[in-house]
Amino acid sequence: MDMKLDLQHYLEIFDSILRSRYGQTFKTGFAALEKRLKPIREGDRGITIDDVMAIFAPELPFLHSWTKPDKEDLQGRMRSLKVATFIQQLDSRPSDVLLIDRVCRCFRELGLTAIVLHHVYPDRFAMCSHHLASLLYISGKTVPEYYLAYCDELRQWGAKFSLTAADAEFGLWAWYRCATKDRSEEHTSELQSLRHL
Asked: Inter-axis angle of helices 97-107 and 110-120, to 10 degrees?
C-alpha cells in the first residue's frame, strides 16, 4: 500500500488534537499573543521581558510543557546580553548561526529560544520538538546549527504543502500525536513513508 503523508489534513485537525490533549484550542490566547508580538516582527520595537512572559499566560498551552522562566533573572540577562537587538537582526539574517547562538545564550536553552523565535517569526522558526527532529533525522554540530537545520527542514516540508515552518510543525505534531496514540496500519505506513523522504 503506497501511503503519502497529507500534512494539510493533519494541520486541519490540529485544533481537535489540542482540544483532545488540553481541553481547549487556545484560539483567544494565540490571537492575543500574535497581536502583542506583531510590532516586533514588523520592526517597530524590540522584544521585552513582558513579551516573553506572555507566552506563558494561562490562556496558552505552554505552561503544560515548558518551564516558565524566572522573570527577574531573565530580564537581567535580556538587558545585559542585548537579546532584543539580536532577535531584530534575525529578521534579515534568519540563518545566522552566531545570532541564534547569542539568543540561545540569553535564554540558556533551546526550548525557550525556539518558542520565542517561533512566535516572533513563525514563517521561519519553529518550536523544536525533539520527537519530530528525531523522526526527520535532524543533526547539527552545535545547538544553533541543529535548530537551524530543524527549521530549514520544516520550511522544506512547508513548501511542499504551501505552509509556513510553524504550520508544517503543527501538522507534523498532529500527525505524531495520532501516530503515537493510534498505532493503526494507516499511521504506521505514514511513518515508514516519512522515514524514506
From this structure: 120
